[in-house]
Write a structure and sequence with these properties.
The chain is of the alpha/beta class. About 25% of the residues lie in helices and about 25% in strands. The longest helix has 12 residues. The relative contact order is 0.10.
């Protein structure tokens, strides 16, 4: 292959470089070869379009052979024939003309570029607070990610939007204000006490964050002392179908779906909506999904009529790829005195994480609900937990244990009325 068949690619900017590096080192080697011809036509075409508009530059495809060379990136990927060298590793890929999903997705991550925007953007995450104070977190972006022309480009632009370290952020909530400076990757956190001599009123309120002339709002729930319990929930494969244990399906869900198209787990919104003992609990979502997806997750929850959630997602980076949920759940249990109900799925480590939390906080965990999402062979993982396949089973258990309203569950999960046809008399 001649030298001109391989063109240089501009290096990604942070956080793109970190995301691409993590993708190459962690996700890519674990993904099996997939022929896009076996995918639904829309999915295959979307992936192909994400690459082949670049045919005249860095990616060449000729009669069953392809080559891609990156320079200045965290490493280099090169493909010729049946194998690809990725950061010094050789991994098998499917032979052309069957295109390989992992090569397509990796290339998409390298070449996505956010369109010019009017200015910076600020994200403020929905949170739980107490009457004597609230901790608010968010992130500042140098450029607001553009809407993009496809779901794939929108998701990649969310993940690769350049962040702003050192931005001056003004945060306000119910008369309390503070100014902070964004830190690494544009993240900021502020602890706001109420105005002197006052207390934040219980209930749902709005907080505001402002950077330059741009501001945003987020819901904050001040948890009343009388709130019976907190629900701490996972997201992927608990509320939304994400296929976490199937890498190819997971990447499709993460990059080719959005709030409008990601599949909801049937019955979970009804289950959560019926939880009360006798009043409604407060809800916190602790998930390994990246914080850049906060708007997408919030939109998904609203679209499917889940209760209002505080969102505690993961800061995407090498130091946060494991052991994320335990510290966040511990923080919530120390911040609030209420008992908790933990809800997750069997696909990854929710049972082990929740069992550890139950051991560390004796008497605080009222129930653990685990949705079946694979890896259920070892029954010891689910000791003293409710393993359920259908949301109705979890809801009925909650009713029996005083955690949900029986009339609400009966109505929400009532069998659909049958419609019988008849002839004209």
């Amino acid at each position: 292959m001649s030298r001109e068949d391989t063109a240089p690619v501009a290096p990604p900017t942070a956080p793109s470089a970190r995301i691409v590096s993590h993708f190459f080192m962690t996700v890519l080697p674990s993904m099996p070869a997939v022929d896009t011809g076996s995918m639904p036509d829309r999915v295959g075409k979307t992936l192909q379009r994400s690459i082949f508009w670049l045919q005249d530059a860095p990616f060449r495809y000729r009669g069953g052979r392809a080559s891609l060379q990156t320079t200045g990136a965290p490493g280099a990927l090169r493909r010729e024939g049946p194998d690809a060298a990725i950061m010094g590793r050789t991994v098998p890929v499917s032979r052309a003309p069957a295109l390989n999903l992992r090569l397509l997705l990796a290339t998409s991550l390298l070449f996505v570029s956010a369109a010019a925007s009017a200015g910076p953007a600020v994200l403020l995450y929905p949170a739980l607070g107490r009457t004597d104070g609230v901790v608010l977190q968010g992130q500042v972006l140098k450029e607001a990610p553009s809407a993009g022309s496809s779901v794939l480009s929108r998701n990649l632009r969310r993940l690769t939007a350049p962040t702003w370290k050192g931005a001056r952020v003004e945060v306000s909530f119910l008369g309390a204000t503070a100014t902070v400076t964004s830190g690494s990757e544009g993240h900021f956190e502020v602890n706001l006490p109420p105005p002197e001599g006052a207390a934040f009123p219980a209930g749902l309120h709005l907080a505001q964050a402002r950077v330059a002339d741009v501001d945003t709002l987020a819901r904050v729930e001040i948890v009343a002392e009388a709130t019976p319990f907190l629900v701490i929930s996972d997201f992927d494969d608990t509320l939304a179908v994400s296929h976490v244990i199937r890498p190819v399906k997971l990447m499709e869900s993460a990059l080719l779906r959005d709030a409008d198209s990601q599949e909801v787990v049937p019955g979970m919104a009804d289950f959560y909506g019926c939880l009360r003992a006798p009043s409604a609990p407060a809800f916190a979502l602790v998930s390994g999904s990246p914080v850049q997806y906060v708007p997408r997750v919030a939109s998904f929850l609203g679209r499917h009529r889940f209760p209002s959630f505080a969102l505690y997602l993961r800061n995407l980076g090498p130091g946060t790829l494991s052991n994320y949920k335990q510290p966040e759940i511990r923080r919530l249990l120390r911040q609030f005195s209420q008992p908790v109900v933990l809800v997750g799925d069997s696909g990854e480590k929710d049972p082990e994480i929740y069992a550890q939390i139950r051991e560390e906080f004796p008497g605080r965990v009222k129930a653990i609900y685990i949705r079946e999402a694979g890896r259920t062979e070892n029954a010891s993982r689910f000791q003293d937990m409710v393993l359920f396949r259908e949301a109705r089973a979890a809801a009925e258990h909650a009713v029996a244990n005083g955690l949900a309203d029986g009339a609400c569950v009966s109505e929400a999960f009532a069998p659909a009325a049958s419609v019988s046809g008849g002839g004209v008399p």
